[in-house]
Structure prediction request, 408 residues.
Amino acid sequence: MLSPYTVLDLTDEKGELASMVLGDLGADVIKVEPPGGSPSRAMGPYLEHAPEAERSLQYFAFNRNKRSVTLDLETETGRTALFSLVEKADFIIESAQAGAMAGKGLGFEAMRQANPRIVYVAITPFGQDGPHANFPASDLTVAAMGGPMSLQGVPDRAPVRLSLPQAWLHASVEASVGALTAHALMLRTNQAQFVDVSAQTAMIWTMMQGMSAHSVQGRDFNRSGNTIQLGTVNLRLVHECADGYVVIFPIGGALFKLVEWCVQDGIIPEDWLTAEDWPMYHFKVLQQQPVAHTIDEVLETVSAYVRDKTKNQLLEHGLAEGVSMAPVSNMEDLTRFRHLEERGYWLTAPLPNGSEAQVPGIFANLTGTPLSVRRWPPKLGEHTDEVLGDLLGLSSSQIADASGHGPG
Prediction:
């Protein structure tokens, strides 16, 4: 799909997913690393019995479909080689501190002088300018300032973060979309484009309807733990089951089915079936009309039904009967998720220590333009000679100087 295009990846762990998405779509991604390797190569978790520069599973996870080139950008020969690559590239993606690349003479203005049609994407915590541009940042602080942490947790304690770092992954995916949007504009205008990606802004989008709550209802959503507020009613959504937790929204037709199942299991008497117009029950509760069974009774009945059943049993039964019951899945659950298995999502990857592992696959399964893993993550500098020699025509001594591996 993107096979005619070349991407220069100058990112660390904050942006490597962005170029991987473009690589999965077919682009030729050249990862430009310093002589010692990208900082992400030193990040855990680590693979045992693998070469030092290839033992990071963090690096392995986000660098497939790329070629690795080492360039010493502190030297004139390294910078000259980079600008030569820019002349032949379509995209540049970097994740340095705001203004850092420009301060080194490697920012957008310098790059568009070398290539007037380049699309330059910069990923930072808070954007290139503004009051927070140079604030120290981590995944935790970006998630907090982006807003979603304000919705996570229960009201009577501090907000909680997501279980695993997510901010840079959201920013990276937004960056890949921004890159392609900017490229479409470049094709119309024939002018280089700069894409300023703020991880904070990317996290705001993860709040979904939480972004517009105040405009719609006059107040923001508040943290509510495992409940959802419907008018004056707090409706508990998360229920404990035999091997974890499941999310159930007991309203409408789904509630009618749940009542049927509870009767069949002997949890409640049969007269519950006719005690209410169950598909309309939540409307009566919201309008504070009299009901035969309180919402607390209904929720306790639902909890009793799921308590001795597994997440997968509930999921499969719900799918068969048209009732949404969503398991709260951990990573082990996902590896056994039948939908992913039948869609052929998982791939077998050759790891740098000689073993193999089941790993997440391509993000989309397309028929007309199928995506694939053409390359697994590269060794450090694996393609330096190939790119600098074949693509740029540099001699062996020039390659050694530019890559930072010259004499002395």
Remarks:
- DSSP finds 18 helices and 13 strands in the chain.
